Amino acid sequence: xxxxxxxxxxxxxxxxxxxxxxxxxxxxxxxxxxxxxxxxxxxxxxxxxxxxxxxxxxxxxxxxxxxxxxxxxxxxxxxxxxxxxxxxxxxxxxxxxxxxxxxxxxxxxxxxxxxxxxxxxxxxxxxxxxxxxxxxxxxxxxxxxxxxxxxxxxxxxxxxxxxxxxxxxxxxxxxxxxxxxxxxxxxxxxxxxxxxxxxxxxxxxxxxxxxxxxxxxxxxxxxxxxxxxxxxxxxxxxxxxxxxxxxxxxxxxxxxxxxxxxxxxxxxxxxxxxxxxxxxxxxxxxxxxxxxxxxxxxxxxxxxxxxxxxxxxxxxxxxxxxxxxxxxxxxxxxxxxxxxxxxxxxxxxxxxxxxxxxxxxxxxxxxxxxxxxxxx
Amino acid sequence: xxxxxxxxxxxxxxxxxxxxxxxxxxxxxxxxxxxxxxxxxxxxxxxxxxxxxxxxxxxxxxxxxxxxxxxxxxxxxxxxxxxxxxxxxxxxxxxxxxxxxxxxxxxxxxxxxxxxxxxxxxxxxxxxxxxxxxxxxxxxxxxxxxxxxxxxxxxxxxxxxxxxxxxxxxxxxxxxxxxxxxxxxxxxxxxxxxxxxxxxxxxxxxxxxxxxxxxxxxxxxxxxxxxxxxxxxxxxxxxxxxxxxxxxxxxxxxxxxxxxxxxxxxxxxxxxxxxxxxxxxxxxxxxxxxxx
Lengths: 376, 292
Fold this sequence. Notes:
The structure holds two protein chains of two kinds.
Chain A: H1 5-14, E1 23-25, H2 28-32, E2 40-44, E3 57-60, H3 63-75, E4 86-90, E5 94-105, E6 110-116, H4 121-124, E7 130-135, H5 142-150, H6 156-175, E8 178-189, E9 194-196, E10 200-203, H7 212-224, H8 227-234, E11 238-241, E12 246-250, H9 253-265, E13 270-275, H10 282-293, E14 300-307, H11 312-325, E15 332-338, H12 341-350, H13 359-371
Parallel strand pairs in A: 12-13, 12-14, 14-15
Antiparallel strand pairs in A: 1-4, 2-3, 2-4, 5-6, 5-8, 6-7, 8-9, 8-10, 11-13
Helix pairs in contact in A: 5-6, 10-11, 11-12
Chain B: E1 10-14, H1 19-30, E2 34-39, E3 46-48, E4 51-54, H2 57-64, E5 68-71, H3 75-87, E6 92-94, H4 102-114, E7 118-120, E8 126-129, E9 133-136, E10 145-152, H5 155-167, E11 172-177, H6 188-197, E12 203-209, H7 214-222, E13 230-235, E14 244-245, E15 250-251, H8 258-268, E16 272-274, H9 280-290
Parallel strand pairs in B: 1-2, 1-5, 2-4, 5-6, 6-7, 10-11, 10-12, 12-13, 13-16
Antiparallel strand pairs in B: 3-4, 8-9, 8-11, 14-15
């Protein structure tokens, strides 16, 4: 979960990292009532990348300019995303833009520090980064990072500041469940001090059980989703709409992807992937059918589940019930396999439902329905 | 031989009194696994299907000499349970659950190293050595004894893949679910080393997907002189860019097209690679033929 700039900066400020003193405004009018240290930077608060290039940061030298900038930015969209406010900060006189980030990396068995003496757009365009593997946060060693920086950062004073800052970022990441803390640009001012001009902080959604702020943020994010997605999330289903016509109900990411590959190879297109593995209950499957039955684009539903912990006799019983209650006439194609599949086959056969032996057969059947416009 | 889990393995089930713990314990015993003990916080002198239940791992080990453990507990309790097993001296601990915070995965991998133990997971169905024993909840009928060592990032895909291999007469020594999370206990490289050292494993099958770097470790292994022949299936060729697929963390976005990049790296290393589940059995057969 990527935080908006001002949220990320609040986390940084909380551990003593220098950030520009900023104010957040949700509208141009509220901004007009604030006393601001002109010139200021007015920055659209969006999660999408490439904000600078898209004109999402505007300099303002007067209250009138600041209000105009805010009005303009709040009416814009960045990568399809409407800003959730503007952040107004003093305009920084930047001597040099640096890059510093801490991220989780498998090769490091934990955290890795990445640095470039030339940050900003150059890094976004793929400039090489110096890398120093840390592992668990307690394994941070200043001397190792100092050695890594020596090759690329000529200014010894800057090196020391970067080492100290990197240590704080590693501790922040581990103590607050962040998977990435990126500062780009890290601004060096005329006096040599370093200020975080931007912040990209990604927090680990799986840590929601121990971090109230993450849980709150996830709930808010869910509430912002379109209705169908919000319903799916509330039912612990993972729904992503795609632009095809085959509604894929599945369990487990690996088999979902294998099925999507087969659908594409056969000349079809999935309308979605809808993963029920986190809630393989009657309620979960009912919701899945309800979501797809209500979507005109979907011409056929393909249920592809290979269950381990999910007992397929239970799934078959639920499918039988759903098929008998369901009002939609949209065809449904089954491919169920896994734990207790023999009982599942019996249940389906008694209910007059066909269970395909292979996923290839199921995909072929689904495609023939889709080509017939969703008619049986 | 098999790796990790053997006929003689003495398995402990942490969280044995929960629904999943009970179901899986019955299933593992039916497969012939020696499930010697269970734990449940705050309980004792109880049993689940004849398996004695202890309040903690140390007591369970003292009474039963358990040497491997699988923990069926929620993610919020995973860290404590896995650490408890390490500190009681258990050499192999599996955490099959998903949604484990990355920070906990980092600490558990480090703790496993410090204890000279192996941590497998998170987000895995477990490990099965067909015909001998299983520690996990994979559907047993998908597996049969044979010469293939299998490594998988995805549970559902490994069931489907092994169902096909077994159906084609290609059995397995051990099938290891390493899990799909970015930070994992046993890595692909380490799992490959285990299978490489196993005399009965004649060829290795790797089941991978878009995102992450495990498949590059597979390519690295295959390029090694004396490496066993490797077959690989990489799914997600047609996955939409920039969308997270399920919770496994397969994501294309920053790497423009990791599927073709991975396929190329594998092919260059001499891996019998396929991009479709329909091609898996043929690829595995080619790898086995190369082992003669």
